[in-house]
Amino acid sequence: MNTLFEYLVRLGDDSLILGHRLSEWCGHGPILEEDIAMTNIALDLVGQATSILKYAGEVEGRGRSEDDIAFLRFEREYRNALLVEQPNEDFGVTMMRQFLFDAYRKPLFEQLTKSSDAQLAAIAEKSLKETKYHLKHSAEWVIRLGDGTEESHNRVQNALNDLWRYTDELFFENEVDEDLRGKGVIFSSEELKASWSEVVEKVLEQATLSIPDNGWQHDGGRRGLHSEHLGYILAELQYMQRAYPGMEW
Question: Is residue 248 domain-resident?
């Protein structure tokens, strides 16, 4: 198994699928400024996916470009976490999903800037600058909605209740992680989860929101086992490349 390729695909797919999800808000934001903000974050994520999947193609050595990897795989070949493929629903759900992901992604990129793989470290350093803004943005909205009106509080609490079950998968590990950790390419997931928990608990406390205590957790995305939502995403995401293979603008 090419462990570096597998890990890069995880990173790239998280960015690609969440970027596509956020792009669905374009023209539908609650206010014009927020419409533009979400669109820009979506562009950042797609840009990250481009860099990561381009490197993945080089590591794989089969001549596949970032576009080939992004658009010409089957559902079971995607390795994104289940969290990022969940539907937008209302604005509260979108911001809660974004916050839970951003709080994970920021310390992850901070770790990866110290990777023994120079190319991955460079991608992480550039992506970290964007992700710091993403986290600030989503955290501020979670606090505003949670500590706002009764309606906004209830909506964002319900969003947290629904999405919390997907958070443990962000720290999924298998032989890929064990191999790359031994080479100094990636680092401890325990430290990563501790950093994530600290930020999440602090923000949710400010937002007057309660972490669900039912213990439910779902996974499968890292192993290619997805929710029904990914199929619909790929039907839209891949349409042009499937209909017109190799098309160039």
Answer: no
* CATH classification of the domain holding 132: 1.20.1260.10
Task: Tell me if 86 is assigned to some domain.
Answer: yes
SS (H, E, C) the chain: CCHHHHHHHHHHHHHHHHHHHHHCCCCCCCCHHHHHHHHHHHHHHHHHHHHHHHHHHHHHCCCCCHHHHHHCCCHHHCCCCHHHHCCCCCHHHHHHHHHHHHHHHHHHHHHHCCCCCHHHHHHHHHHHHHHHHHHHHHHHHHHHHHCCCHHHHHHHHHHHHHHHHHCHHHHCCCHHHHHHHHCCCCCCHHHHHHHHHHHHHHHHHHCCCCCCCCCCCCCCHHHCCCCHHHHHHHHHHCHHHHHCCCCCC
Q: How many structural domains comprise the chain? A: 1
- Structural domain of 77: 3-210+219-243
pLDDT at 180: 97
Q: Mind listing the pLDDT tens digit for each residue in 36-75?
A: 889 999 999 999 999 999 999 999 999 999 999 999 999 9
